[in-house]
Amino acid sequence: MPVLDWLGKEKVINHHLDVPFRFLDKKFSVGASENKIIHGDNLLALKSLLPEFAGRVKCIYIDPPYNTGNENWIYNDAVNDPQIRRWLGQVVGKEGEDLTRHDKWLCMMYPRLRLLQKLLSEDGAIFISIDDNEQANLKLICDEIFGANNFVAQVICRTSDNSNNDSKKFSLDHNSLLVYSKNVLWQPNKLLDADKQSHFKNPDNNPRGAYFDGNPLNSPNPRPNLRYEIESPTGFKIQPPTNGWRWSKETLAEKLSSGEIFFTADGKGIRRRTYLADMAGLPPSSLWVELEKTGSTRKAKNELKKIFPENKTADLFRTPKPTALIEYILRLATDKNSIVLDSFAGSGTTAHAVINLNAQDGGNRKFILIELNDYAESITAERVKRVGGEFNFYELGATLFDDDGFINAEVSREKIFDYVYFAETHKHYQPTDEENLLGVDDGIAYYFFDDEELNFDLLAKIRTRAAAYVIYAENCTLAETELDEFKITFKKIPRDILRL
Ligand SMILES: C[S@@+](CC[C@H](N)C(=O)[O-])C[C@H]1O[C@@H](n2cnc3c(N)ncnc32)[C@H](O)[C@@H]1O
Asked: How far is the CA of 120 from the centre of ligand 1 (A)?
């Protein structure tokens, strides 16, 4: 498989593993829900989400900076390498075609996509909006990160409702959506869109309702064993298509007797009839050009103007996506209880789409948004609030470990307990009346004794009876045989705390 190389790639390939784990600090809540809006760099925020959400997000939509040369996105990840440090803090773009513009963008995207891939559930998919500035590069790194087998489609989305007649070359009226699944078995929900239904007609008032006679009868791949003649009631011998028929002789005979396949009036051909009423839905097209269905950039800006009527400047937010576009993605890729993530949230369109869809179908989808810019509160969260959404708003908090690798003194015990217990069991810590007990899971009791030594005095403090024990402490003076006898696994603080 061809693999893309760029300046700095080797430094970012495993960078997601070095990103320090930070706790999320809840700043305020609107209503009572599990939805989250996080203000901060998504590299850090995605890492913070790992303990709770790894493998649980059913649909990710992202709309990263397209790297047009006119945006002010900043490459400021803490990649500690002189080559990359030279680029730190440099604003990409404006100055014109900086030779490392694409390398920097790829360095920015790569570790974020690695984390997003970890968050995706086995039955999940990611949809990435992109234009021609980086589409080809993005495709290659996604093949690498998600697996080329998991490439689902490149959807062409019309974005503009009129062409730009001043364009010197082409009027660019579309962008792309790259779709990747976590697992090759993923399929989109099949929908019965109004435009697709229009293929089904009922010219002769068929009591079974509207139908379509044009579905293929030939095998998609050459199948010499499926090349057989069919004799019609008039005695005419119908020759097989080049690849052969779609079904064996026996199956075709069954379909003829059920009426799904029938002979044309002249007896010289066969047709296949599908009734709309029998269809659970139809596969989505890879061409999204109907603006009524998926909106346009102009529509998206107007939506935002209506939500923020007090804002008189045209530039409240320059690059919103239409809510209808993301609603359509959610209809294809979520069920009523899915978790939806957007780590380049901008004006919060994804949350708005989740709220709309839940209202339409009584769903309980949850959203997580991440936005770096300071407008995370004034625009992103404010929009969600104005359209009736409930959420908790977070800032990135302290790191779990300090620069020397010790547990950060600023972090509360409860947060440390939750992290350690979650890393061990994937369950959350609930305070108990036993001070150092993190919890009991699967017969194993987990204890955390900071600043203490694991010895017989400490064992005397343990009140919970369990089949086995995992005990975190600073040190251990019990012998291996004693640990074995009491079924204790000793874990040294901070060395043995799992790094996510
Ligand atoms: C193209 S806009 C997304 C627009 C969004 N889809 C909407 O409908 O409003 C990209 C957003 O990603 C944000 N962004 C860029 N880098 C980021 C990062 N490292 N972490 C979080 N957000 C980031 C930008 O501030 C910007 O708001």
From this structure: 19
CATH class (in words) of the domain with range 28-188+284-399: alpha beta
User: Which one-letter amino acid corresponds to residue 406?
Assistant: F
Residue nearest (by alpha carbon) to ligand 1 atom 5: 346
The answer to whether 35 and 367 have CB atoms below 8 angstroms apart is: yes
Q: Which of 24, 107, 327, 344 to mutate to test the pocket of ligand 1 (most atoms within 8 A of CB)?
A: 344
Predicted confidence at residue 278, as pLDDT, reads 82
Cα-to-centroid distance, 131 and ligand 1 (Å): 15
Which residue ranges make up each domain of the chain? 28-188+284-399, 194-278, 413-492
Cβ(346) – ligand 1 distance below 6 Å = yes
Which atom of ligand 1 lies nearest, measured to the CA of 41? 20
> Is the Cβ–Cβ distance between 77 and 108 less than 8 Å?
yes
Per-residue pLDDT tens digits for 149-160: 999 999 999 999
Pair 42, 344: CB distance under 8 Å: yes
**β partners of residue 126:** 60, 180
Choose which residue among 371, 374, 378 to substitute to test ligand 1 binding: the one with the highest number of ligand atoms within 8 A of its C-beta.
371
Each residue of 169-181: pLDDT tens digit? 999 999 999 999 9
pTM: 0.84
Which of 107, 55, 112, 64 has the alpha carbon at shortest distance from 85? 107
How does pLDDT run across 299-349, given as a tens digit for each residue? 999 999 999 999 876 577 888 999 999 999 999 999 999 999 999 999 999
The reply to whether ligand 1 has any atom less than 6 angstroms from the CB of 127 is no
- Integer Cα distance of 330 and 323 in angstroms: 11
Does the beta carbon of 347 sit less than 6 angstroms from any atom of ligand 1? yes
